[in-house]
Amino acid sequence: MNDETKNENGAQAGAGGADRPVRFDTKIAVLLRDDLETWQRLNVTAFLVSGLGTALPEVVGEPYEDADGTPYLPMFRQPVLVFEGGREAVTAAHERAVRRGLPTAVFTADLFGTGHDRANRAAVAAVGRDRLDLVGVAVHGPRNSVDKVLKGARMHR
């Protein structure tokens, strides 16, 4: 049985294998502030999900390979849902995610002015949690918990 025919707990998804929908017990979600430029939204999303993939190896599937045998990097095993909301929605989601102890990645407005990882970490470290100028957060956890964290946000358009 391959990974596509299992849910996250390893249960069979049903006869038919990979063509049957899989309901994941967890959710990967990104919440972006709705006042970002398009390039910023894409950049923030890429940075945020990279944190989840490195800290939570169980969310990453197996490497890919095409019919010619060309290898490709593995990707997440489940969809990444992208939401948007105002500054207040992002701040509230961050607070709820931290309070619930969910794995959380943050991207602050200050990071648009930095050029490398060390500077990014220093910019976040320089500001207290309640004063972060958040433009995006990513969370992973049980579906119900992530849904509660995202209360007030809407699917990204």
Tell me about this structure.
The structure is a single chain. This protein has helices at 38-55, 87-100, 117-125, 143-149, and strands spanning 26-33, 64-65, 71-72, 80-85, 104-108, 134-142, 154-155. It is globular. 31% of the residues lie in helices and 22% in strands. The strands form two sheets. A five-stranded mixed β-sheet has the order 5-6-1-4-7, with helices on both faces. A two-stranded antiparallel ribbon has the order 2-3. The chain starts with 25 loop residues before the first strand and ends with a strand.
Task: Provide the β-strand percentage band.
Answer: 15-25%
Q: Count of DSSP E strands?
A: 7
Radius of gyration: 17 Å
Q: What is the number of helices?
A: 4
| Biggest beta-sheet profile | 5 strands, mixed
- Shape call: globular
Helix and strand sequence? EHEEEHEHEHE
Helix content: 25-40%
Mean pLDDT metric: 90
Structural class: alpha+beta
In short, what is this structure?
By secondary structure, this protein is of the alpha+beta class.
Topology readout:
Blueprint lengths: L25 E8 L4 H18 L8 E2 L5 E2 L7 E6 L1 H14 L3 E5 L8 H9 L8 E9 H7 L4 E2 L2
Parallel strand pairs: 1-4
Antiparallel strand pairs: 1-6, 2-3, 4-7, 5-6
